Amino acid sequence: MRLLLFSLLAAAVEPVLSRALPPSNHVAHEKRGYTGSGRWVKRDRVAQHLKVPVRIGLKQNKEALEKAQTWLLEVSHPQSKKYGQHWTQDEVIEAFQPTTDAVDQVKQWISEAAGVATHRITHTDNKAWLAFDAKVEELEALVHAEYHEHHDESSGRAVISCVSQFNIDRLSDQYHVPKHISEHIDYITPGVKGIHVHSSDLRKRSWKAGHHGGHGGPFGGQPPKRRPAPMMPKNSTELATCDIAITPACIQALYDFKPLSPYAKVSPNNSMGIFEEGDFYAQQDLNSFFTNFTSYIPNGTHPTLDSIDGGEAPVNTSDAGGESNLDFMLSIPIIYPQRTTLYQTDDLNYADGGIGSTGGIFNTFLDAIDGSYCTYSAYGETGNDPVLDPTYPDPNGYQGQLMCGVYKPTSVISISYGEQEQDLPAYYQERQCNEFLKLGLQGTSIFVASGDTGVGGLAGDGTANGCLRNGTVFSPTQPNSCPWLTNVGATKVYPGRTVFEPESAVVDPAGHPYRSAFSSGGGFSNIFPIPDYQADAIATYFADYNPPYPYYFDGQYNSTGLYNRNGRGIPDVAANGDNIAVYLEGNFTLEGGTSASSPIFAALVNRINEERIKERKGSVGFINPVLYQHPEVLNDIVNGTNPGCGTDGFSCAPGWDPVTGLGTPNYPKMLNLFLSLP
Ligand SMILES: *[C@@H]1O[C@H](CO)[C@@H](O)[C@H](O)[C@H]1NC(C)=O
Ligand SMILES: *[C@@H]1O[C@H](CO)[C@@H](O)[C@H](O)[C@H]1NC(C)=O
Ligand SMILES: *[C@@H]1O[C@H](CO)[C@@H](O)[C@H](O)[C@H]1NC(C)=O
Ligand SMILES: *[C@@H]1O[C@H](CO)[C@@H](O)[C@H](O)[C@H]1NC(C)=O
Ligand SMILES: *[C@@H]1O[C@H](CO)[C@@H](O)[C@H](O)[C@H]1NC(C)=O
Ligand SMILES: *[C@@H]1O[C@H](CO)[C@@H](O)[C@H](O)[C@H]1NC(C)=O
Ligand SMILES: *[C@@H]1O[C@H](CO)[C@@H](O)[C@H](O)[C@H]1NC(C)=O
Ligand SMILES: *[C@@H]1O[C@H](CO)[C@@H](O)[C@H](O)[C@H]1NC(C)=O
Ligand SMILES: *[C@@H]1O[C@H](CO)[C@@H](O)[C@H](O)[C@H]1NC(C)=O
């Protein structure tokens, strides 16, 4: 509100226009509505001689975006003739790139309108951007706008971005390009979207304490729930105590598999990837766990570190994190002697939720495993978001350049981090989701924990209870709502039950014994529609077990209803996620969370890939279309709910449900099915 008044005042005292209006064949390509950017305050005009990196995002092939879902199904649907015929990265780049004609027209415009010789213009490797350095005066002439510093008072971050030179529309800043160019470009930075500047030409950035809005981190903004153990099981192969503590032996019994021989010959390339950010494992804790709970994992076993943008691990025992320790204590006993790869992302300035933290998540990770993502244009965003994502080099941390394409993605990746859909702009999530689709096309399976707050969000996120509108509407999790990854909900062996009986959805509404309520994340996206492969399962759920709540359509939750009736359903599958035995900071303890469920499921798929490698077959890639066609390879979970937003949430039911999805793994059946596919 203050900003709006400020701008109107500024406009009112501006002299009569001294410059010509943009030529009549130009259109305003992008506008900034002031209501949407209240944080940023306009300051001085940027010096005309300052050189800035200009990036012009080229619209990606429209046809490709429309066809992408079909392409993914072609390689991942069990009835498809092309099942398993994954694409190479070059094929993906080729399919999504803009046409040559479009590129040539844009280049010609730059050279004619700004006097930037074509040899100064680089076409990036992934074909998505034209890049050149220009003086601010050249850029202003190109896009018919002025460039000013903009400052974010809460974080001290500064960007330069454009403001309109003309009183065409007092309420928005905008820049202009010829109409025939406008259809070929996504957007220009700096433009309405600013670029960060570390130049001494600008004010020094000042960093204030007080972290705003960053929800990135293990679910709940905290590591998995943790509580003191009543006792440590004395016998690591005993199954009678699995209702008290889940050990590797309990997981083997639940999902019907045995550990591999520690001497088994395994493919050195079939490593299981695990994403971590701001949470770190301690080797001594891993050693204690393997020594006390397995007979086959040597002391000192550890993941291979793929450090991203300054991420480091391991840490000393006193600094160990509940998420990282949990992930490796669950996955390594399932897959050993197969390897694990740790994607430790972002320097401490950004990763620890402190001063430098931004609100975004996953983009720097995706950059590191797919260089083309660094400059990828989609849904109005090219490359990382200058406000939501970390920028490198980081004057307060990692001094290197943003890492692009430095690691080959593993065939299986487990992620136990996320936010709520409402925390990030839709375009940010859509662009990221498209990248998950491309990874699926290339044969990577991505598993994500579905969240620990049931149908709701984290208390205090938006409303007091973390729910939408007036605190009553269900809040879906992110990135889970993306249809091109596999979401894993949490199940539990209730007290007095055994691993030979069906599990139930995990639910602990009272927050005992944990400090806060824990309920398995599930529901329906407000952004992404129901994907084809899931349509029948959701229709059956609504037909046979209609939830007792009013609903709305197309994500429009502004008037009535509690959940979106035509959104992508979450989760897809489930696995145990409560009372997990771990060592943390030197002590035995128990943890709970869907954080546990994701690495369990992912590890079993890593083993399936190994068996397929032996038969000279490729990785399974995106597995949802196969699982929805063959729910019989999962243990259907029919008991339990996922409360949130003052309701009981949804209920488990025979078949798919938005609590535990299709169910937990039956390893022998899953293995047979995937081995039967080409
Ligand atoms: C541990 O439990 C297993 C399974 O109940 C049992 O066969 C074994 O004898 C037990 N070992 C010890 C040392 O008690
Ligand atoms: C592992 O990957 C490397 C590089 O991609 C390749 O050269 C090698 O043949 C692979 N090894 C196996 C056993 O697949
Ligand atoms: C667990 O293993 C560690 C060795 O890494 C050992 O020092 C510790 O005593 C064991 N704890 C128990 C309760 O057996
Ligand atoms: C296990 O390995 C660590 C190094 O990772 C070493 O410090 C420790 O002494 C080893 N413990 C045993 C029981 O071998
Ligand atoms: C671990 O502790 C030692 C001794 O206190 C210290 O020198 C070292 O920097 C610490 N390492 C990490 C990664 O924090
Ligand atoms: C929330 O809004 C709905 C629809 O406008 C209304 O029916 C309901 O009473 C409101 N609930 C609360 C707690 O304000
Ligand atoms: C809800 O909001 C959207 C856009 O914000 C609008 O298009 C739609 O008409 C609104 N729906 C209702 C029922 O008010
Ligand atoms: C670990 O256990 C020791 C001994 O019981 C205790 O003093 C210490 O506070 C515990 N550490 C943590 C982090 O719980
Ligand atoms: C069903 O789930 C509830 C919690 O929702 C639990 O209390 C109960 O023990 C479960 N029943 C069985 C048979 O596991």
Short description:
The chain is an alpha+beta fold and 678 residues long.
Which features does this protein show?
single chain, 678 residues, alpha+beta, Rossmann fold, 2 domains, eight-stranded mixed β-sheet, four-stranded antiparallel β-sheet, 16 helices, 33 strands, globular, disordered N terminus, binds 2-acetamido-2-deoxy-beta-D-glucopyranose
Topology readout:
Elements: H1 2-13, E1 26-33, E2 40-45, E3 51-58, H2 62-76, H3 89-96, H4 100-114, E4 122-123, E5 129-135, H5 136-143, E6 146-152, E7 158-163, E8 172-178, H6 179-182, E9 185-189, E10 195-196, E11 225-227, H7 248-255, E12 272-277, H8 283-293, E13 304-308, H9 322-335, E14 340-345, H10 348-351, H11 363-369, E15 377-378, E16 381-382, E17 412-415, E18 419-420, H12 426-441, E19 445-449, E20 477-478, E21 486-492, E22 504-505, E23 507-508, E24 518-519, E25 523-529, H13 532-544, E26 551-552, E27 563-564, E28 567-570, E29 573-576, E30 580-584, E31 587-592, H14 594-614, H15 624-629, E32 634-635, E33 664-665, H16 667-676
Parallel strand pairs: 12-14, 12-17, 13-14, 17-19, 19-21, 21-29, 26-27
Antiparallel strand pairs: 1-8, 2-6, 3-5, 3-9, 4-5, 6-7, 7-10, 11-31, 15-16, 18-20, 21-22, 23-24, 25-28, 30-31, 32-33
Helix pairs in contact: 2-12, 8-9, 9-14, 14-16
One 2-acetamido-2-deoxy-beta-D-glucopyranose binds at residues 556, 558-559.
